[in-house]
Amino acid sequence: MEVQREQKTQGSIWNGQKSFVETAPHTSSMKLTQFLLFLYLHLSSCKCISVSGLPQEDLVDQKCLLNKYTHRSCNKVFCQPWQKCVEGSCVCKLPYQCPKTGTPVCTTNGRKYPTYCHQKSFECLQPETKFSNNGTCTAEGNFNVSLHYGNTYAEGIVRVRLVDQDEKMFICKKSWSMTEANVACVHLGFQQGALVARKRFNVPGDLLINSTECLHVRCRGIETSLAECTFTRRRTSGYQGLADVVCYTRDADSPSNQSFQCVNGKHIPQERVCNGVNECGDQSDELCCKACQGNAFLCKSGVCIPNEYKCNGEVDCITGEDESGCKETRHPQIHDNLARSDQDQEGETEETEILTADMDIERQRIKSLLPKLSCGVKRNTHIRRKRVIGGKPAEVGDYPWQVAIKDGERITCGGIYIGGCWVLTAAHCVRPSRYRHYQVWTALLDWLNPNSQLRVQTVNRVIVHEKYDGTTYQNDIALIEMKKSSGKKECELSNSVPACVPWSPYLFQPNDKCIISGWGREKDNQKVYSLRWGEVKLIGNCSQFYPNRYYEKEMQCAGTDDGSIDACKGDSGGPLVCKDVNNVTYIWGIVSWGENCGKPEFPGVYTRVANYFEWISYHVGRPLISQHNV
Ligand code: 4AZ
């Protein structure tokens, strides 16, 4: 493969003729989902305008909705620390995988667990075992929620009994939002959460008088028990109003052509989609957004999160940008509750008493105790001299995940070190039966003048994707397992650093800048001895360049507008890497194919590695490549 360089500045440019390839839809290759989307887009007459003034089609990504993402979709969100990500879904870990340290907790059915994590992971197996309180189970009983003065069993004013509190208390309206209402309804067994968070019920007069002393509650929205939320008591002079709720039942639902259907079946008003508030209860209204409205922040992965989650010390966007470039981290939790009410009632002094443990902080503590994977961060962070993009040789340590694959006497392909004894490459580079002929050269720069860091590894086995198709280049991915040095348990590659394997297709987007590297040939078929690199951008909608040959889910195009930087013969199997906001490097693509080299309108095509996360983890073992949700 070759990395083309711009001749004007560096010596060899490929100024291919611009050839315009007309965009033509190909119904034959149209998948069923695409067809349904087509129908949807063309048959829906609604040109709805959202509150933010954005037309719905600029707010919500309809194609993304077909995936039915929820709070359990790890392509879009992080899993809870007691869960792991398997085939795109957060599933529960077993209790023994929880960190051992923490305080014991008690459940609503009076069972005791060593930590919150143990309880939550047990709850997955037995959903009726809900959290009641931090600390041991007391004789006085457990946390309890009930609804009062409603017309049906599914509605009313919310009353709770906190453990350690003698009396049952109502919740103040001020702290009550759809987030808390959803949790209360889920707690009460309404799986779809709340229908509305505010409705007036007729309450007896003496209750109104007593309501100067109600409880404030703050939830994150992912809790299954209202007891996992944080309760505070505030004494104020005036009447506060009490929280009420209508929980979702099929009968009460009244969908219109203006409403959004959540994945859990519930309908919510269209104008509440992509506002950072988890109205659906399963978060499905916030996961396919092109923009956010109201007080929300848009993650690059298309997820809207509340603005207050920005710079709060916990990463919410899978792409990490909500916690990057922060001047200081705020810890909102309880303080934000205060801030909210202070704004409402200026001049009124409040006395706040925290009544329950902050389980959100406990959740973050558990997260911080989980093992962390080290990948994608170079060891020697020497400052690179500024260079013209593309065309300059790499220096030692610049691409510590890059390997060369030697077949017999020749270096035929590139590869990417992903940890342990494993190297990722293109299927078209290797054949399992030839494994004895291969060598993996790591930390190599110039194969005419091998540097001292170079290590040569022999190969134990080669695994080619079982669905690799040599004619279409579909699933052009293979794994090479290197031999361990004799008597060693691990592959010792002290001069190599693994690149991270992307677990979600939403980590990088078209127009993101990424880097290709390799020993591939130059334009005039000139041999290259020294590792070279170039910057390319990810290209979306690549079927326009390769009609009928480009498979969006499995392939990724990348290149430059003028085609001056490209991979070529000999670069195959090598890396297309992208860096996230924290400068962590991911192996986003494997050099696979392309029409010619360095021609505009004919970008390089790469195997889309994120699509093969499960395949890779099946072979190399999940812990080796799982950064989160191990
Ligand atoms: C090859 O023959 C090859 N310009 C690799 C990449 C590209 C073209 C050919 C993309 O291995």
TrEMBL record:
One of its GO terms (biological process) is innate immune response. It holds the Pfam family SRCR. PROSITE patterns: KAZAL_2 (PS51465), LDLRA_1 (PS01209), LDLRA_2 (PS50068), SRCR_2 (PS50287), TRYPSIN_DOM (PS50240), TRYPSIN_HIS (PS00134), TRYPSIN_SER (PS00135). Its EC number is 3.4.21.45. It catalyses: Inactivates complement subcomponents C3b, iC3b and C4b by proteolytic cleavage. The keyword Ribonucleoprotein does not apply. Residues 145-248 form the SRCR domain. It is found in: Secreted, Extracellular space. GO terms for molecular function: metal ion binding; serine-type endopeptidase activity. Residues 388-621 form the Peptidase S1 domain. One of its GO terms (cellular component) is membrane. Its main location: secreted. Keywords: Calcium, Cleavage on pair of basic residues, Complement pathway, Disulfide bond, Glycoprotein, Hydrolase, Immunity, Innate immunity, Metal-binding, Protease, Repeat, Secreted, Serine protease, Signal. Residues 91-139 form the Kazal-like domain. Disulfide bonds join C219-C229, C262-C280, C274-C289, C292-C304, C299-C317, C311-C326. Trypsin-like serine protease that plays an essential role in regulating the immune response by controlling all complement pathways. Inhibits these pathways by cleaving three peptide bonds in the alpha-chain of C3b and two bonds in the alpha-chain of C4b thereby inactivating these proteins. Essential cofactors for these reactions include factor H and C4BP in the fluid phase and membrane cofactor protein/CD46 and CR1 on cell surfaces. Heterodimer of a light and heavy chains; disulfide-linked. The fully processed and mature protein circulates as a zymogen, and is allosterically activated by substrate-induced remodeling of the active site. Interacts with C3b. Interacts with complement factor H. This is Complement factor I. The gene is Cfi.
